């Protein structure tokens, strides 16, 4: 028997109408300009999205053509985010920090026909353009289109000129909610990047999850500072979720360093913000020497890599800001789990829950797979690879068979950990980063977090290095805070209180800067290479 209910499609057009209609006058997108901000109401964003859709139709975007963006987080990027899927085309966010060969690969693989580019990124984009085989139109936002030399067959347009004079309403088509809305390539460090194609339905459901009270709890009362780039995992869903519920959004544009982030927080007073741990480490370090009023923030979301407990405690104890630890991947839209301690927990137990990756919501099922492919119990101890499935989890990659990544309808995350009977996920490592010492596993993430708990340490990375006796042992690479001094022996003594004796690292190195990936996470592959090439000055403790 079927239900008697209607089947209204879950599409981006509904999100666009809700944000620009009921919330049109009250909600704003605020873009940081370096000194101050420029503001646009959601009503204006809606009108300009309609103008953009008309203009793109004029450029031949009449179906599911891919429209790329090569942009920072700003108001224009939000307009493209809304207009392109709502008109039935497919948004492709290009990660400006990928290597040029990877960028060329993804733009050609996705067959981008139009690319919208920020003027400040033209020097970078201009070098790629001759290699982009399918691009016919480049639209430059922020002025300066005349500066771009276009290869034959490519037309260059100015964003504002293109919009000017276009109708401010658009008859958004009724689309199949399962059709493609947006795509994002994973920042693979070894093989070619893989394309994840989100549907209207997956984005809609994911946005609702972002807004749920036990999700990121985004509401019309919020002003969200979206530090996570819109070219990385859809800025963790914040742009669509904010538009859906009428939360205002603060966009940092290209000003992603600790100083402007502190300043825009003091001036624009966001209530919540989201970024990877390395960004927050930098902000906290800056704030300790340069106090700013960050009291408007009640919650910050930390994810993309494990959040060290020390980072959480500093936020909470020194600034009264609650840290929400979240786990996800490009393939999971990205919001998977969020960590809020169960009601009634107190004392240290609260920290234990909150430092974990948290609970998965009803929309995401999880299982742990052990060495022999058996499904492991949720007993808080059995460690296996996490597999997930659900309506906003990828089922395959775009035009690229990768059977390794998908397993009987489940996504293999490559993350390793355990789940407690009450559903809290605790990741211990990436499958490829776990260290096997004398047949026993050592969690590199656990060691990193503990070393980063030392007051002299800004950042710590741990990799496995070959060892004659144990086959592999941990090597800790430490970045000290400005003006701080500490040696390897002292750091190892510091760990001795909380780390089993056989796990205590004997290999240590001090580095000026931690190598990072295109999205700001520790790049262990580069550190391993530096070590293999003899580029690290390693101390061996007895
Ligand atoms: P990406 O697709 O670039 O966002 O990377 C996803 C990967 O980041 C995951 O598979 C995890 O390895 C890692 N990750 C994301 N969030 C967390 C977290 N809270 N704790 C530990 N690792 C995380």
Automatic annotation (TrEMBL):
Gene3D superfamilies to which the protein is assigned, alphabetical: 3.30.300.30, N-terminal domain of ligase-like
Record bears the keyword Ligase: yes
Ranges in a coiled coil: none
MF term (GO), any: ligase activity, forming carbon-sulfur bonds
Highest rank taxon of the organism: Bacteria
Keyword NAD attached: no
Entry-linked InterPro entries: AMP-bd_C, AMP-bd_C_sf, AMP-dep_synth/lig_dom, ANL_N_sf, ATP-dep_AMP-bd_enzyme
Chain ranges of the AMP-binding enzyme C-terminal domain: 447-521
Pfam families to which the protein is assigned, alphabetical: AMP-binding, AMP-binding_C
Alphabetical keyword list: Ligase
Boundaries of every AMP-dependent synthetase/ligase domain copy: 32-398
CDD domains, alphabetized: ttLC_FACS_AlkK_like
Protein family (similarity comment): Belongs to the ATP-dependent AMP-binding enzyme family.
Protein name, per record: Fatty-acyl-CoA synthase
Organism (species): Saccharopolyspora antimicrobica
């Amino acid at each position: 028997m079927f239900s008697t209910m209607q089947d209204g499609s879950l599409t981006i057009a509904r999100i666009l109408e809700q944000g620009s209609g009921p919330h049109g006058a009250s909600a704003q997108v605020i873009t940081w300009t370096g000194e101050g901000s420029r503001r646009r109401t959601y009503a204006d964003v809606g009108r300009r999205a309609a103008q953009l859709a008309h203009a793109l139709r004029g450029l031949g975007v009449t179906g599911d053509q891919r429209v790329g963006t090569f942009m920072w987080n700003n108001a224009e990027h939000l307009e493209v985010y809304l207009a392109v899927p709502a008109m039935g085309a497919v948004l492709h966010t290009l990660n400006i920090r990928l290597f040029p060969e990877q960028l060329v690969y993804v733009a050609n693989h996705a067959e981008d026909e139009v690319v919208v580019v920020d003027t400040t990124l033209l020097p970078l984009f201009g070098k790629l353009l001759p290699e982009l085989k399918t691009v016919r139109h480049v639209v430059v936002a922020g002025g300066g289109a005349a500066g771009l030399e276009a290869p034959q067959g490519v037309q260059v347009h100015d964003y504002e000129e293109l919009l000017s004079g276009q109708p401010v309403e658009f008859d958004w088509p009724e689309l199949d909610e399962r059709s493609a809305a947006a795509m994002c390539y994973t920042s693979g460090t070894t093989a070619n990047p893989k394309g994840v194609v989100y549907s209207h339905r997956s984005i809609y459901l994911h946005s609702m999850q972002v807004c749920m009270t036990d999700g990121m709890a985004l509401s019309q009362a919020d002003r969200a500072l979206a530090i996570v780039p819109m070219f990385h995992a859809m800025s963790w869903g914040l742009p669509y979720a904010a538009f859906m519920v009428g939360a205002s959004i603060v966009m940092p544009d290209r000003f992603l360093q600790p100083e402007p982030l502190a300043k825009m927080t003091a001036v624009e007073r966001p209530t919540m913000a989201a970024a990877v741990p390395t960004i927050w480490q930098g902000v906290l370090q800056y704030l300790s020497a340069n106090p700013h009023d960050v009291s408007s923030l009640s919650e910050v979301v930390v994810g993309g890599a494990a959040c060290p407990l020390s980072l959480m405690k500093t936020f909470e104890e020194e600034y009264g800001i609650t840290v929400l630890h979240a786990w996800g991947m490009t393939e999971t839209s990205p919001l998977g789990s969020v960590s809020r301690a169960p009601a009634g927990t107190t004392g240290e137990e609260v920290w234990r829950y909150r430092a974990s990756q948290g609970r998965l919501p009803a929309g995401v099922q999880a299982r742990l797979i052990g060495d022999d492919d058996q499904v492991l119990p949720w007993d808080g101890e059995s460690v296996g690879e996490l597999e997930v499935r659900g309506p906003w989890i990828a089922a395959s990659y775009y035009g690229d068979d990768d059977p390794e990544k998908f397993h009987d309808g489940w996504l293999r995350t490559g993350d390793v950990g355990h789940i407690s009977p009450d559903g809290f996920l605790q990741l211990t490592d990436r499958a490829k980063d776990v260290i096997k010492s004398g047949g026993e596993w050592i969690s590199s993430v656990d060691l990193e977090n503990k070393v980063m708990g030392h007051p002299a340490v800004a950042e710590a990375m741990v990799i496995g290095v070959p060892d004659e006796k144990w086959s592999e042992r941990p090597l800790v690479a430490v970045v000290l805070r400005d003006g701080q001094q500490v040696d390897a022996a002292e750091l190892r003594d510091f760990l001795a209180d909380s780390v089993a004796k056989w796990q205590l690292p004997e290999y240590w190195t001090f580095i000026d800067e931690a190598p990072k990936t295109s999205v700001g996470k520790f790049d262990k592959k580069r550190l391993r290479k530096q070590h293999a090439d003899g580029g690290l000055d390693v101390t061996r403790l007895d």
